[in-house]
Amino acid sequence: FGDNMIGARGINKTLEDLTEDTDVAAVVLRVNSPGGSGMASDDIWNQVIALKEEKPVVVSMGDYAASGGYYISMPANKILALPTTITGSIGVFGGKMNLSGLFDKGGMKHFEFSRGARSDLLSNVENFDPEDRALFRHFLETFYETFLTKAAEGRGMSRDEMHQVAQGRVWTGTQALQHGLIDQLGGLDDAIQAAAELADLKEYQVE
């Protein structure tokens, strides 16, 4: 619908190149995303971790860095946000739509072939039965625990402390600072300055 999106494959290639580039002393990752795929977010998280092992990484949050946008930010050495940045949303949700009625109205027939127990879990022509719903809920809760644990590690909190400010809740940048989800209020220029300080640079240029 005209939105700009990033994918794990593309951004990870860039982050990998920066990891290996000896002319780059520090990296500022500008995040302006409301989130997206949990799997893609976790892939990018892993690449940020690898980058951080080689050089400082500072995140500069734009208008929003929520859910997956926060997920890829949390390993950074330092996180900056604007006072009005929408961030947090440390949580996960999911479901499916049953489109059988739409297919009927359109005069379309829909056939599915599956093999194995629960292989049709995400079928778009059937509702969840109680066992389906329990299994899908377990998947969501497991991923939430992963998100929660990694966020807590990144911010130096316990799991329970992070849970108090997580649970899918959204915060402004000012509130996020109060809750320990970010380190500092500031824009991109401030993030660049923070990266230079972490890399102990007196003179530098920005690519």
Features:
207 residues, single chain, alpha/beta, 8 helices, six-stranded mixed sheet
Structure, explained:
The chain has 207 residues and is α/β, with parallel strands linked by helices. α1 runs parallel beside α2. 29% of the residues are buried.
Cα separation of the termini: 31 Å
Alpha-beta classification: alpha/beta
Shape by Cα distribution: elongated
| Average of the residue pLDDT scores | 92
Order of helices and strands: HEHEHEEHHHEHEH
Please tell me how large the radius of gyration is: 20 Å
Quote the beta fraction. Answer: 5-15%
Total strands: 6
* DSSP helix fraction: 40-55%
Largest sheet: 6 strands, mixed
What oligomeric state do these chains adopt? single chain
Please work out how many helical segments DSSP would assign.
Answer: 8
Contiguous low-pLDDT stretches (5 residues minimum) are none
How are the elements arranged and paired?
Elements: H1 8-20, E1 27-33, H2 38-52, E2 57-66, H3 68-71, E3 78-81, E4 86-88, H4 100-105, H5 130-155, H6 159-165, E5 170-172, H7 173-178, E6 184-185, H8 188-198
Parallel strand pairs: 1-2, 2-3, 2-4, 3-6
Antiparallel strand pairs: 4-5
Helix pairs in contact: 1-2, 5-6
Task: Explain briefly what this protein structure is.
This protein has eight helices and six strands; from the N terminus they run H-E-H-E-H-E-E-H-H-H-E-H-E-H.
